[in-house]
Amino acid sequence: MTEQNRGGRIRPLRPGGVVGPPSGRRRKQPPQGRRAVTAAAWSAAALILVGGSGLGYVYVKLNGNLEGVDINAQLGADRPKNLDNGSMDILVLGSDSRSGDNGAYGKDEGGARSDTAMVVHVYEGHKKASVVSIPRDTLVDRPDCTDADGAAVSGATRAMFNTAYEVGGPACAVKTVESMSGIRMDHYVEVDFTGFKKLIDKLGGVEITTSRPIEDTKSHLDLAPGTHTLDGEQSLGLVRTRKSVGDGSDLGRIQLQQAFMKAFIDQVKDVGVFSDPKKLLGIADTATKAITPDSELDSVNELMGFAKGLSGLGAEDVHMITMPVEYDPADPNRVIPLDAQGRQVWKALQADRPIPASATEDAATGKADGLVR
């Protein structure tokens, strides 16, 4: 899952899927490498949201960096209806593969899982977006799938969400998300977290402000209250941090990731890449090596058009939530969806409307509110 060896990366989508119910998630401490990879999905979403047409001309030179995979054949025709209402839904997924350069974040044991997943909904007109984080340890009803080799993979009840990719690859992850949400994914993007670290360094770091100290021996992060410019390694540390924030659950870490993503979007907008061709080329080269788009976005022209439609989005235009969940009474290291609230979220996005505040009122939060901005 590196720039040199992309074989362990999650591969993308085009049309095919299913419809069904929701499920839940956990508090358990994951391996160090799996925590690091959370940066991957957040980087991908940020790249999507701030791609901009300004990068277009340089993509001609960077076409060789792009590697897309067509998984449409695996998904088949049993998918939610494509509403074609001017909105766009993108599944952003990061895997916990630790092959190649990513081995620095843990041992590669094979059988990568989806570590972080977000549904990015871009509203009609492409002036606003909502991001819904799906906790990786959510217990879901996983549908029957077909893996990359064409073999059938049986569905399961109360299966952790991140096992969908492990047993059936990206197509199964997409099918599971479509089953949970009833929403057809228009695109799929995966990003390499080693590439993400390099991208942060190319940008000159990302500025965040902490309201309380963050000291985490697992992620090797030690920040006093105040404003900091994080380099790539520190940024990975922040999005990996868990035990030392909020209630120590993964839900608290998602809050850190969401705050970091907004800061990342602002940094891309403010760093001046669009007025500095040399800087633009370096950043675009790093970014295109970091992501794997779906096969409808794996050419220069396709990616240019896609990015152009999102170029007006800033951090203030992006609303972020975590899929409404509660801790599983049978296992506090897992979470389960709050069905009524979840239906509010997905129905709002299906109708291209803002997510109502009531959808997240009674959901578990991880208690890391306001720690980073």
Name the features.
two-stranded antiparallel sheet, 373 residues, alpha+beta, disordered N terminus, 11 helices, six-stranded mixed beta sheet, Aminopeptidase
Account of the 3D structure:
Residues 1-37 and 97-111 have low confidence and may be disordered. The longest helix is centred in the C-terminal third of the chain and has 21 residues, at 250-270. A six-stranded mixed beta sheet has the order 13-8-1-2-3-14, sandwiched between helices. The chain is an alpha+beta fold. The chain has one domain (32-360): LCP protein (Aminopeptidase). It has eleven helices and 16 strands. It has helices at 32-36, 38-50, 56-62, 72-75, 163-181, 193-203, 232-240, 250-270, 277-290, 300-308, 339-350; strands spanning 88-95, 114-122, 129-134, 139-142, 145-146, 152-153, 156-160, 187-191, 206-210, 214-216, 221-223, 226-230, 291-293, 318-322, 325-328, 331-337. Strand 5 (145-146) and strand 6 (152-153) form a beta hairpin.
**Gap between N and C termini, in Å?**
30 Å
Q: Give the integer mean of the pLDDT values.
A: 77
Kindly give the count of domains.
1
Number of strands: 16
SSE layout and pairings?
Layout: H1 32-36, H2 38-50, H3 56-62, H4 72-75, E1 88-95, E2 114-122, E3 129-134, E4 139-142, E5 145-146, E6 152-153, E7 156-160, H5 163-181, E8 187-191, H6 193-203, E9 206-210, E10 214-216, E11 221-223, E12 226-230, H7 232-240, H8 250-270, H9 277-290, E13 291-293, H10 300-308, E14 318-322, E15 325-328, E16 331-337, H11 339-350
Parallel strand pairs: 1-8, 3-14
Antiparallel strand pairs: 1-2, 2-3, 4-7, 5-6, 8-13, 9-12, 10-11, 15-16
Helix pairs in contact: 2-6, 2-8, 3-10, 6-7, 6-9, 7-8
